[in-house]
Amino acid sequence: MNLDFKRILCPVDMSEFSLDALRLAVKLAECSDATLDILHVIHNPFDELYMTALTEADPALLDAYALEPQKRAKIFRAAEERTEALLKHFCHDTVRNHGKVRYHVRNGDPFDRILDGAQDFLTDLIVLATHGRTGIKRLVIGNVAEKVVRHAPCPVLTVKAKAAVPSEEAAA
């Protein structure tokens, strides 16, 4: 089966939702012999995901930030380095048999960085998880997947969160 995709972008936030999307992206990449670009965007480098590991490695980083705001660049670099290791660990079991994988870590607004990545990597398809938020949570948090679908320069395949899909047992 040839799907004619040469480059597939799969943004991940290291949640179970994004792992489901990554699994599908790997299958599509294998079917089309495509390169899989995995992107993680650091929206807030002071998020617990990054800071726990950073403060264990170098507790002075937080003090440096508190005392000297100009040292933020050092924290951003440290967060990026640590995040690349976390990203590779997060993806390892899912992508280990696919030889064409590239990892990318960027800082900023996830929507903007995903669109930038799609252009920079010459992406043919974006495979993106949705979190299944509705109502006020969706309005407050925003919906990155919806904005990507509307503005992406290529087709976007969204993968609905399993938790948001009613099971057959619940429907019976």
Written overview of the protein:
The protein has 172 residues and is an alpha/beta fold. The protein has a domain at 7-43 and 91-171: Rossmann fold (3-Layer(aba) Sandwich), CATH 3.40.50. The protein has helices at 16-32, 48-57, 60-67, 72-95, 110-120, 135-141, 144-151, 168-171, and strands at 7-11, 35-42, 101-107, 125-129, 156-159. Strands 3-2-1-4-5 form a 5-stranded parallel sheet, with helices on both faces. Strand 1, helix 1 (16-32) and strand 2 (35-42) form a beta-alpha-beta unit. Helix 2 (48-57) packs across helix 4 and helix 5 (110-120) runs parallel beside helix 7. Mean pLDDT is 80; it is low at 137-141 and 163-172.
Question: Short summary of the structure?
Answer:
It contains eight helices and five strands, in the order βαβαααβαβααβα. With 172 residues, the protein is α/β, with parallel strands linked by helices.
Layout of helices and strands, plus pairs?
Blueprint: E1 7-11, H1 16-32, E2 35-42, H2 48-57, H3 60-67, H4 72-95, E3 101-107, H5 110-120, E4 125-129, H6 135-141, H7 144-151, E5 156-159, H8 168-171
Parallel strand pairs: 1-2, 1-4, 2-3, 4-5
